[in-house]
Amino acid sequence: MNMDYSINEKQDLLSLLPNELEELVLSLGEPKYRAKQLFAPMHKGVSPAEISNVGKALVAKLDTVAVYSLPAVRKKLVSAIDGTVKYLFGLADGNSVESVVMKYKHGNTICISSQVGCRMGCAFCASTIGGKVRDLLPSEMLGQIIAAEKDMGERISNVVMMGIGEPLDNYKNVVRFLRLVNCEDGLNIGYRHISLSTCGLADKIDELAKLDLPITLSISLHAYDDAIRSSIMPVNKKWNIDRLLSSCKSYFAKTGRRISFEYTLISGKNDTKEGALALAALLNSRLRGVGDTMPIHVNLIPVNPVDETGFSSSDKKTVERFAETLEKKGIRATVRRRLGADINASCGQLRREEEQKNG
Ligand code: SAH
Q1: Is the model's pLDDT at 345 over the cut of 70?
Q2: Is 98 labeled as catalytic in the residue annotation?
Q3: Distance from the CA of 217 to the center of ligand 1, in angstroms?
Q4: Region for residue 200 given its phi and psi (left: phi exceeds 0; alpha: psi -120 to 50; beta: otherwise)
């Protein structure tokens, strides 16, 4: 049994890969095909006890050694403007995390959390204020998708790991989650429909590159030089911009997948025209060699003011000027559309509100 993944000292069923579930079923003296009967429904939000063709005997045996647990909807907000749905999910140990489902023409995209809290300490971010409480299990990341699909009665076709937490700080569980979400008999979401956003743990980007999973990597860059980046993102003191971009370059060389950069515009901090020129020069010189066509895409996000941080967002004109300056230098730039503005859909804030009420 794989007790790396347990809930209340019992095997966590939703963290198991198909072959591991088979092993478990065999170890309980049941035929292998039972694993298939369990896997597909479990990944649709049906517990073993509710699966009609799985015998009562197996359900009873499973109960003694294993748990099936899904995040519970603790709070749900639906945007009247664009239908964006924000969930506060309760976990088995009482902690909570947030997920947001955004409705696009090409399908539903879910933004999921990877940790309870975060220890990266970015100065503008609500998720890191109380530090990291714990890593999420693979099942708890998967469970956010399953629970949201079940609640909404709609399929989710795209996943972005941009919620609470730093996915590469929970590397092992995140990789397992990626493999689970991609399982044909499970959610069957293709790697190309998954984006992983990181504040820049360069060593882990290198490890991920070796796995060669065709997911999209998003780098939270937020600055065009080390002085500014270190002042808002402590991670930069360990992995500076140069080291980070060299990992990005090898990631692209190995996987052929484009990398996108996130750049939060903070008024008076990183949003000048000179800043945009410096950013373009940095990306062009570090990521593009002669004849190299690596597509570079910068996603501009006007900072979402969080009470405790004291940062304010750049005005519309400044944001547009920044985007135009990048474009002129051959860098694709888009300004992030703000979905769910009426429900405060950016991550980290709902969990914080809830904690402040309780504590
Ligand atoms: N830890 C990962 C993913 C979570 S945050 C990462 O750092 O990439 C997802 C994105 O939202 C990151 O780019 C993050 O820097 C950004 N972000 C966090 N707080 C923000 C805020 N107040 N306003 C705008 N963007 C923010």
Answers
A1: no
A2: yes
A3: 14
A4: left
Which residues, in sequence order, are bridge partners of residue 265?
302
Of 322, 315, 240, the C-alpha closest to 275 is 322
Separation between Cα atoms, residue 167 and residue 198, nearest integer Å? 7
Residue 337's CB is within 10 A of a number of other CB atoms, namely 8
Q: Is the CB of 69 under 6 A from ligand 1?
A: no
> What's the whole-number mean pLDDT along residues 230-234?
98
Contact 76, 87 (CB under 8 A): yes
Place of tokens 């910068």: 298
Q: What are phi and psi of 197, to 5 degrees?
A: -105, 130
Q: Are 118 and 127 in contact, with CB atoms under 8 Å apart?
A: yes
- DSSP codes of every residue in 257-282: --EEEEEEEBTTTS-SHHHHHHHHHH
* From 98, 140, 149, 166, active-site residue: 98
Q: Which helix (H) or strand (E) holds 108?
A: strand 107-111
pLDDT digits (tens, 9 = 90+) for 37-64: 999 999 999 999 999 889 899 999 999 9
CB-ligand 1 contact for 306 (6 Å cutoff): yes
Centre of ligand 1 to C-alpha 36, Å, is 38
Q: Which residue minimizes the CA distance to atom 13 of ligand 1?
A: 220
Decide if pLDDT at 354 tops 90: no
The CA 136 to ligand 1 mean position distance, Å, reads 18
249-253, long-range: CB < 8 A, 24+ apart:
249/286, 249/287, 249/294, 250/206, 250/209, 251/205, 251/206, 251/208, 251/209, 251/217, 252/287, 252/294
Helix, strand, or coil here: 107? strand
Tokens 């909404």 sit at which residue? Answer: 152
Alpha carbon nearest to ligand 1 atom 5, residue: 162
Apex CA 164: angle with CA 182 and CA 287, to 5°? 70
Q: If you take atom 18 of ligand 1, which residue's CA is the nearest one?
A: 125
Q: Is 347 a catalytic residue?
A: yes
**Of 124, 329, 77, nearest in space to 231 by CA:** 124
